[in-house]
């Protein structure tokens, strides 16, 4: 796992477990765990993770923005999808090698009524629609995930 991803995962864990009221406090905690970061790096991480500053019992606190939840993962999933194909009854998604199960899991967690379920192999996901009439909707959904771009 890349260092940036490990660091960002750790930031999410810390923010969920502790009351962090300023970037210096978070930077110190990360340094204790072997992550040396600058204020600029933390600011970029906050932007990518959707971290916001809120009040908790009158005290400022950094927390993950619920409106941003899942957007970072959607962008990553979008990069892992290479192609989508379908016939009259099924949808097939081609992914990067070794990523099909993660993509299938993400699609399952969308809880779309048009999707009965998925099966993920190594680089192929089988999407099972609830009806052949749902295929255009599913294809549009997957294509939308594929084009998700990071917000600036």
Outline the secondary-structure elements.
Layout lengths: L2 H15 L5 H10 L6 H11 L1 E6 L2 E6 L6 H10 E6 L4 E5 L4 H10 L5 E6 L3 E6 L5 H13 L5
Antiparallel strand pairs: 1-2, 3-4, 4-6, 5-6
Helix pairs in contact: 4-6
Q: Could you describe the 3D structure shown?
A:
- By secondary structure, the protein is of the alpha+beta class.
- The protein has 2 domains: 3-64, Winged helix-like DNA-binding domain superfamily/Winged helix DNA-binding domain (Arc Repressor Mutant, subunit A), CATH 1.10.10.10; 71-147, 2-Layer Sandwich (Gyrase A, domain 2).
- It has 6 helices and 6 strands, in the order αααββαββαββα.
- It has helices at residues 3-17, 23-32, 39-49, 71-80, 100-109, 135-147; strands spanning 51-56, 59-64, 81-86, 91-95, 115-120, 124-129.
- The chain has a 4-stranded antiparallel β-sheet with strand order 3-4-6-5. A two-stranded antiparallel ribbon has the order 1-2.
- Helix 4 crosses helix 6.
- The relative contact order is 0.11.
- The mean pLDDT is 87.
Under the CATH scheme, the architecture of the largest domain is 2-Layer Sandwich
CATH class label of the largest domain: Alpha Beta
Helix content: 40-55%
Provide the succession of SSEs: HHHEEHEEHEEH
Please tell me the total number of domains: 2
Strand order of the largest sheet: 3-4-6-5
- For the CA atoms, what is the radius of gyration? 19 Å
Query: What's the tally of helices?
Result: 6
Uncertain runs are none
Summarize the main sheet. 4 strands, antiparallel
Terminal Cα span:
24 Å
What's the count of strands?
Answer: 6
CATH topology of the largest domain: Gyrase A, domain 2
Briefly note the structural class of the backbone: alpha+beta
